[in-house]
Amino acid sequence: MSYHNPPTPPRKSATFDDHTLAEIRRAAATGIYDIRGGGTKRKVPHFDDLLFLGASISRYPLEGYREKCETSVVLGTRFARKPIELKIPITIAGMSFGALSGNAKEALGRGATLAGTSTTTGDGGMTDEERGHSQVLVYQYLPSRYGMNPRDLRRADAIEIVVGQGAKPGGGGMLLGQKISDRVAEMRTLPKGIDQRSACRHPDWTGPDDLEIKILELREITDWEKPIYVKVGGARPYYDTALAVKAGADVVVLDGVQGGTAATQDVFIEHVGMPTLACIRPAVQALQDLGLHRKVQLIISGGIRSGADVAKALALGADAVSIGTAALVAIGDNDPKWEEEYRALGTTAGAYDDWHEGRDPAGITTQDPELAARLDPVVAGRRLANYLKVMTLEAQTIARACGKNRLHNLEPEDLCALTMEAAAMAKVPLAGTDWYPGKGGF
Amino acid sequence: MPVFDLSATPLRALNSALHGLEQGTNDTRFEVVNPRGHHAVAVGIDSPVSVEVHGSVGYYCAGMNDGATVTVHGSAGPGVAENMMSGTVIVEGDASQYAGATGRGGLLVIKGNAASRCGISMKGIDIVVHGSIGHMSAFMGQSGHLVVCGDAGEALGDSLYEAKLFVRGSVKSLGADCIEKPMKPKHLEKLARLLEKAGVTGVQPEEFRRYGSARKLYNFHIDNADAY
Lengths: 442, 228
Known about the structure:
The structure holds 2 protein chains of 2 kinds.
Chain A: H1 18-30, E1 35-38, E2 50-52, E3 73-75, E4 84-86, E5 90-92, H2 102-115, E6 118-120, H3 128-133, E7 136-141, H4 150-155, E8 158-162, E9 173-175, H5 182-188, E10 196-198, H6 207-221, E11 228-233, H7 237-247, E12 251-255, E13 261-265, H8 266-271, H9 276-289, E14 297-301, H10 307-315, E15 320-323, H11 325-331, H12 339-344, H13 369-372, H14 377-401, E16 415-417, H15 420-426
Parallel strand pairs in A: 5-15, 6-7, 7-8, 8-11, 11-12, 12-14, 14-15
Antiparallel strand pairs in A: 1-13, 2-16, 3-4, 9-10
Helix pairs in contact in A: 2-14, 6-7, 7-9, 9-15, 10-14, 11-14
Chain B: E1 3-5, H1 11-19, E2 29-33, E3 50-54, E4 66-73, E5 86-91, E6 107-110, E7 123-129, E8 143-148, E9 164-167, E10 178-181, H2 185-197, E11 209-213
Parallel strand pairs in B: 1-2, 2-3, 3-4, 4-5, 5-6, 6-7, 7-8, 8-9
Antiparallel strand pairs in B: 9-11, 10-11
């Protein structure tokens, strides 16, 4: 009797998985790296790896619908004559007109204003619509200086000097020619249709000593009224925070690797930067070492999605958080109602990231007038406000459960970690223990 | 004429006074003495006043100037007239790096030499340097004119967009996508006007060579990757 070996099913390589193989073929066919928008898609340790402990015999909770839980925050209390007062500790991150349509920028302004928070310009300058619809507007001071002028500096409510962002610490940007409409070209003083490079470093200062002088100049130009933020990508959060503070920042904005971008090389998005979770404690430690925690405010961004994320960031020591990708989703980005059109573009709702190509079915990451008209800025603004309010309610729910009458009273002691990695990064005990890696010499 | 002695008066008082000018004010001429390398001297002016600075200044003198005439009777540190919108800034001595960086309009005149990255990312400003300039000048220059009566350092006009560069002396090397271009009558006319406005004498426009963008890097193509 002969023995017949049963066939084994085909086995694919874990190293050369389908995505990797497709990327190799794509690179071979096109000769160019993949450029896309958004943040990292890889799984990294995140706020999901933390849990709140809630109340117990030694901690009593607050009544959900009766007892107040304060959510407001003041940013820029260190030097600015006119600090910013926000009703909620959730701000809208910088995203440019150019990368986004005018309607999308207007929607962000409307939504933020309804919710009592700030929105932020981006690379490309400030539009009148954006200023008009944003009660509190932060004006980004970027390496490219596209659209930068003293009039807009003075009509801003705060200035954010962008040193880097989480999606690409150390990298500049590229707005591809197909998104350069007449108006975008004029605002950036560049010919229509060319690829517009955004520089990776500032043209007139290098290093923290120069930054101190640059901040002095901006304060003098704006008569010391405006809070000055310094935004850095998650790279060396302890030292970057300390150096930003040394240079005179009122607020430090720290953007982890999950933070999005309008367009950058995929290899940059996926392989450079630190997870947001790993950035917070070193930054807070730097502020504490300098005796300036809560005096220089810390804004955390990169992958903030829910009130739970907000509460966890604040518990770890942040003063506020900032959202970009989530805000775009709230106003309609990647909405399944456009599935047919996403498929025509070779993708699917939830995965669309070719924001640089300007063909966004949702009318958000485009300069095509017909596509842009699909987004009603009033309706979209309302959706963003709703989302911000839900996040705030969620954060309050958690804070009350932890016995806090103010979101900012949340603390690391309220948390435990589900994984060793999260315990090490957040410096909170592994669930069921009183230990985290690095504590006690291990 | 208001006089600000920066050895005794805070910088804030000077800039505050320059920002608070009412339309039609009689105070249209200001004098600054003992600047002693102060940074951010006379920044953010948005009135057509004149400011005479007697001595050398530090970083960002006349930064974001919009309409004023600022004259530095000395040398200037990094970033003089950075992001100027309009007006005139004159440096009687030398200027450090990043002179006129990202400037959008107006005229910057440097009667001595300028260091590296002169006119970096310029966006409409006109810069006239009586002497020579350092390396990487006009890097990513978008618009405006850079006129150099002396020599230019390495990598002039690297990654240039539409800024126009005129150099009378030698150019150590050209940066990526920067090439020499023919001097046409319209360029000679523009150059003559700029030289006159900048007080350059004894020099003819025909003595200059013109440089501009080859425009080969305007849209990314993999075959140009070696240029980066």
